[in-house]
């Protein structure tokens, strides 16, 4: 048994493989590691596990780093790249070999295939049978390729007091002698992870529970080297709303998709991920500061969480309403420009910022704000949507003409003055204010829904408002 890390300063790590974007499950793992480290005043480290050279790409590495930055998950020290440490991994494998905790295995691929077929036919667990464990290398043909395998303990049991899963026990007879170095001298993932965690001083390994079985095998290396065991916390995976394993149809996308395609705010995604499998009483809206103060592993549940896109969107709506208007305008402007096919100038951007207070209350994402803002920048004649066109049928044109005539006389183009003027129009027409506002909204925005009609008039200004009304008036 290795030494304890309980009394050391907390060090956590996030160790993604750059074979794709930062997916939502990985982002939650990163968040939990970040919060645990920050809560305890420790370090949060980032390691890119790029040993799979065929599948690791620079684009994926960039996407992971970009996603981390977007979620404000800053890491301490330099980013560690696993592939660059291959010589150190091999050094540890050879040290285990020299100490008698590992051995050279000369079993050929054909022999191992035959072994698996025999075990499958006998309905036995498929694991290496240790045929070179106690043999001398001199028995192998000269120059024959070999791998280095760990001498796993065969008797007794290995116990993990997992901070999330509780006490988990595996009989050592179930653990096989795993490969540490391949025949070409390259380290396996299982070896590299253990060596890197030790060298980086990681005290707490917080990761998905799909790695729980790996922990028992990795402890074999840790014990053989006499290293301190980390504290393990294996978090249940995220499932879809239907209880099935999370997939793309449930929303298992890269973090970049939540930002770019879905128009979500990072604080909303972060808050939602925090509540997927961790809780603090009945609190749903949790600021980053509160999360750092409250987060601990005791609050992580043992059951898989269910990803609910609707809840995430509703939470995003809350954060949109809380967001600074200037910041929102900066985020929305490119989406407006894409829809318009032109760039917004400084004046237009200022108008967009001024419109935020009216646009954001009902929006659940940045795209809804952008759609709602288009009327401000569209040129006459406005294209009407189907419902807006319906609102301009019948006697609407006459009503618009009456509204235009009264609005022309309004000197103080403000909400109170405009409200008084339109109430006068309704009174003169013997109808309610809503009956006036509907065709007016259609004429001013080309849509049947928009911010409040008085806000629309103020944002468009007197000249533009009257010109749009005149286009549809009798």
UniProtKB/TrEMBL annotation:
<dbReference type="InterPro" id="IPR001412">
    <property type="entry name" value="aa-tRNA-synth_I_CS"/>
</dbReference>
<comment type="similarity">
    <text>Belongs to the class-I aminoacyl-tRNA synthetase family. Glutamate--tRNA ligase type 1 subfamily.</text>
</comment>
<keyword id="KW-0030">Aminoacyl-tRNA synthetase</keyword>
<feature type="short sequence motif" description="'HIGH' region">
    <location>
        <begin position="16"/>
        <end position="26"/>
    </location>
</feature>
<dbReference type="Pfam" id="PF00749">
    <property type="entry name" value="tRNA-synt_1c"/>
</dbReference>
<feature type="domain" description="Glutamyl/glutaminyl-tRNA synthetase class Ib catalytic">
    <location>
        <begin position="10"/>
        <end position="313"/>
    </location>
</feature>
<dbReference type="GO" id="GO:0008270">
    <property type="term" value="F:zinc ion binding"/>
</dbReference>
<keyword id="KW-0547">Nucleotide-binding</keyword>
<dbReference type="InterPro" id="IPR020058">
    <property type="entry name" value="Glu/Gln-tRNA-synth_Ib_cat-dom"/>
</dbReference>
<dbReference type="InterPro" id="IPR020751">
    <property type="entry name" value="aa-tRNA-synth_I_codon-bd_sub2"/>
</dbReference>
<dbReference type="GO" id="GO:0005524">
    <property type="term" value="F:ATP binding"/>
</dbReference>
<feature type="binding site">
    <location>
        <position position="248"/>
    </location>
    <ligand>
        <name>ATP</name>
    </ligand>
</feature>
<keyword id="KW-0963">Cytoplasm</keyword>
<comment type="function">
    <text>Catalyzes the attachment of glutamate to tRNA(Glu) in a two-step reaction: glutamate is first activated by ATP to form Glu-AMP and then transferred to the acceptor end of tRNA(Glu).</text>
</comment>
<dbReference type="InterPro" id="IPR000924">
    <property type="entry name" value="Glu/Gln-tRNA-synth"/>
</dbReference>
<dbReference type="InterPro" id="IPR045462">
    <property type="entry name" value="aa-tRNA-synth_I_cd-bd"/>
</dbReference>
<dbReference type="InterPro" id="IPR014729">
    <property type="entry name" value="Rossmann-like_a/b/a_fold"/>
</dbReference>
<dbReference type="InterPro" id="IPR033910">
    <property type="entry name" value="GluRS_core"/>
</dbReference>
<keyword id="KW-0067">ATP-binding</keyword>
<feature type="short sequence motif" description="'KMSKS' region">
    <location>
        <begin position="245"/>
        <end position="249"/>
    </location>
</feature>
<dbReference type="InterPro" id="IPR004527">
    <property type="entry name" value="Glu-tRNA-ligase_bac/mito"/>
</dbReference>
<dbReference type="Pfam" id="PF19269">
    <property type="entry name" value="Anticodon_2"/>
</dbReference>
<keyword id="KW-0436">Ligase</keyword>
<dbReference type="GO" id="GO:0000049">
    <property type="term" value="F:tRNA binding"/>
</dbReference>
<feature type="domain" description="Aminoacyl-tRNA synthetase class I anticodon-binding">
    <location>
        <begin position="328"/>
        <end position="471"/>
    </location>
</feature>
<dbReference type="GO" id="GO:0006424">
    <property type="term" value="P:glutamyl-tRNA aminoacylation"/>
</dbReference>
<keyword id="KW-0648">Protein biosynthesis</keyword>
<dbReference type="InterPro" id="IPR008925">
    <property type="entry name" value="aa_tRNA-synth_I_cd-bd_sf"/>
</dbReference>
<comment type="subunit">
    <text>Monomer.</text>
</comment>
<dbReference type="InterPro" id="IPR049940">
    <property type="entry name" value="GluQ/Sye"/>
</dbReference>
<protein>
    <recommendedName>
        <fullName>Glutamate--tRNA ligase</fullName>
        <ecNumber>6.1.1.17</ecNumber>
    </recommendedName>
</protein>
<dbReference type="GO" id="GO:0004818">
    <property type="term" value="F:glutamate-tRNA ligase activity"/>
</dbReference>
<dbReference type="GO" id="GO:0005829">
    <property type="term" value="C:cytosol"/>
</dbReference>
